[in-house]
Amino acid sequence: MECTVRWTGLSGMTFLAETGSGHVVAMDGAPDGGGRNLAPRPMEMVLLGTGGCTAYDVVLILRKSGQTITDCEVKLTSERAEKDPKVFTKVHFHFTVKGSNVKPNTVERAIKLSHEKYCSASIMMEKTAEITHSYDIVDSALSAG
Prior knowledge:
- The chain has 145 residues and is of the alpha+beta class.
- The protein folds into two domains: 3-33, no CATH class; 42-143, 2-Layer Sandwich (GMP Synthetase, Chain A, domain 3).
- 33% of the residues lie in helices and 34% in strands.
- The chain has four helices and six strands; from the N terminus they run E-E-E-H-E-E-H-H-E-H.
- The strands form two sheets. A three-stranded antiparallel beta sheet has the order 1-2-3, with no helix packed on it. A three-stranded mixed beta sheet has the order 4-5-6.
- Helix 1 (42-64) crosses helix 2.
- The radius of gyration is 18 Å and the shape is elongated.
- The model has no long low-confidence stretch (mean pLDDT 95).
């Protein structure tokens, strides 16, 4: 896996990252750091990448477990160290899984497998941060009426 990150010019702190799969993502800094607030901060990208990694795992595991899911969302809230390097020190993952007759123990198992075995990003993040999880299940049959 590889990517290239390029500064877009002499003014501001906007960067374009191109992934090995050919996708381009912009990143920018805060105005007080020379940025223009045109795109997510690099550390926000780390957080959202981690959320994407674990959400992918959870959906895949739930589908393979025979669960009928219609939506899966994970909200990440975090705290960072006060001083440089400002690593993540706490990250909480809250999953909302929607579907029909989704079993809580299967959701718990999917989250646990993601965070202990499959999600490389959260496993790396766990080296500096206290990781916690919670979840809600919304029965789509009940919420449709």
